[in-house]
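Practice problem 4.
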């Protein structure tokens, strides 16, 4: 195994003159089950790309660690459903091989020796855990002034489409890694936008399942009501295949016992149709950018040509939603983080959120050079259980019964669509993230715990933008099929990674 971030400078010098494998080689879908040699060749090419693009060259910093012997593992898995396909795993999900750090130096030695249930299922289904991806530290819940894609363990993740642009959300390394061709698929996690935003900005399909479809056991937590893992891939079919592998019940995560799943999320994707399907268009979530509106209008035209019946849907989030949202997350963060940290195997490291706060203060030069831990400190003070219960009930009402459920029912539509977010902004460690334009409505699905897919719908000056499709609880398979139908109907030309700094088109 290679804890590559510890040797990154040496690797960079060693590999600086190595030729970069063509991106198309990693992008081609290979029928891995047809020949063990194909699994070996594909995995070897992906590892070479990590070495030449992540450790050297543009140094994307998307991968924290990887298994250089993964090809030998892949060849033993070719007779299983995933056929030895490689998967990178966000470093807040436990895998037996490596420490699970959540990007924090406080958890640098968090080697639990166990697989999260979703990872055990992935391996059983023939998936190969290639390595761990960088993330926004603590899944971007430490500070309001953070820069997405940065962690003390992994450094700053860079966007393959423009390396001076941001990768968005906390699953930033997973998004950049798949865009760069480092593996077939990746697992991200989302509390509010952390799968869909990096997928959109990195030109990927990202699927946030209904909360409960995938187990959260042995995942560094934020929220018991919003957290979920999900797939990040190049195509909807691949996302469905990966979801099929990792979905399942878990007695240690009771919400998974309530979920309504299908046995195979790829079923029917190749024949999925939007003919006669009523689709709700969230015009108010398009934002103020004319270029994003133009992309969205083109996507809507594609949906219409595919037979969808478009229905304008008016929605504006009530102020009560925003007043309740953060207090709920902060209360759950303290409770869930204390539970996770206090039950970790071994004796070292933090055993509570308070311990993490103390660690960051003691290691401020390394941990808090760029932004503070204001949200952690607020969470320690958010202890009113009665207020929490009231706020949670408000959120459930406003995002479910009076939110997505009502919008679908009142407008007689099957799905809601909107742009996912805008194009990637310039990364700025000093000033933090720059979410501009008022684009997207993914917060509705995130807070409700309902399914949400983003599918690439084009680019703005070479920077990808995705189309969001959201549905009701447990409509995961239907949302995937809608995504596949749009993907098939899409006419927009998609941008390609440059692995260079952004420059205006034509220059």
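Answer key:
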């Amino acid at each position: 195994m290679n804890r590559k971030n510890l040797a990154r400078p040496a690797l960079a010098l060693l590999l600086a003159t190595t030729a970069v494998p063509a991106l198309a080689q990693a992008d081609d879908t290979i029928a891995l089950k047809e020949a063990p040699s194909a699994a070996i060749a594909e995995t070897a090419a992906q590892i070479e790309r990590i070495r030449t693009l992540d450790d050297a060259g543009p140094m994307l910093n998307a991968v924290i660690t990887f298994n250089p012997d993964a090809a030998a593992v892949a060849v033993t898995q070719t007779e299983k459903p995933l056929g030895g396909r490689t998967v990178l795993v966000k470093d807040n999900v436990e895998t037996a091989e490596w420490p699970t750090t959540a990007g924090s130096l406080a958890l640098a030695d968090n080697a639990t020796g166990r697989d999260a249930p979703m990872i055990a299922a992935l391996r059983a289904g023939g998936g190969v855990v290639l390595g761990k991806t960088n993330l926004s530290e603590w899944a971007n819940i430490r500070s309001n002034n953070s820069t997405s894609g940065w962690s003390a363990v992994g450094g700053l993740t860079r966007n393959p489409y423009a390396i001076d642009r941001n990768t968005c959300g906390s699953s930033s390394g997973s998004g950049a890694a798949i865009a760069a061709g480092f593996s077939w698929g990746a697992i991200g996690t989302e509390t509010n936008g952390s799968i869909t935003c990096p997928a959109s900005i990195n030109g990927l399909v990202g699927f946030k399942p209904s909360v409960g479809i995938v187990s959260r056991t042995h995942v560094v937590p934020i929220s018991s009501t919003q957290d979920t893992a999900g797939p990040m891939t190049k195509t909807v079919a691949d996302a469905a295949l990966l979801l099929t592998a990792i979905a399942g019940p878990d007695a240690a995560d009771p919400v998974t016992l309530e979920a309504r799943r299908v046995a195979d999320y790829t079923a029917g994707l190749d024949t999925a149709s939007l003919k006669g399907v009523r689709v709700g268009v969230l015009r108010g979530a398009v934002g103020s950018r004319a270029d994003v509106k133009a992309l969205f209008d083109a996507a809507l035209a594609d949906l219409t040509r595919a037979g969808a019946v478009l229905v304008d849907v008016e929605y504006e989030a009530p102020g009560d939603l925003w007043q309740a949202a953060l207090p709920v997350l902060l209360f759950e963060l303290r409770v869930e983080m204390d539970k996770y940290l206090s039950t970790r195997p071994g004796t070292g490291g933090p055993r509570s959120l308070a311990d993490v706060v103390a660690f960051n203060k003691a290691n401020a030069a390394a941990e808090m050079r760029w932004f503070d831990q204001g949200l952690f400190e607020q969470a320690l003070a958010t202890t009113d259980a009665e207020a929490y219960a009231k706020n949670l009930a408000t959120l459930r009402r406003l995002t479910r019964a009076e939110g997505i459920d009502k919008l679908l029912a009142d407008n007689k539509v099957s799905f809601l669509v909107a742009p996912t977010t805008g194009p990637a902004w310039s990364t700025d460690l000093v000033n933090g993230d720059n979410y501009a334009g008022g684009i997207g409505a993914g917060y509705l699905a995130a807070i409700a715990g309902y399914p949400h897919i983003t599918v690439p719908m084009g680019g703005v000056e070479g920077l990808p933008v995705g189309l969001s499709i959201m549905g009701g609880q447990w409509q995961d398979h239907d949302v995937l099929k809608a995504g596949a139908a749009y993907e098939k109907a899409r006419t927009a030309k998609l941008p390609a990674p440059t692995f260079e700094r952004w420059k205006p088109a034509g220059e």
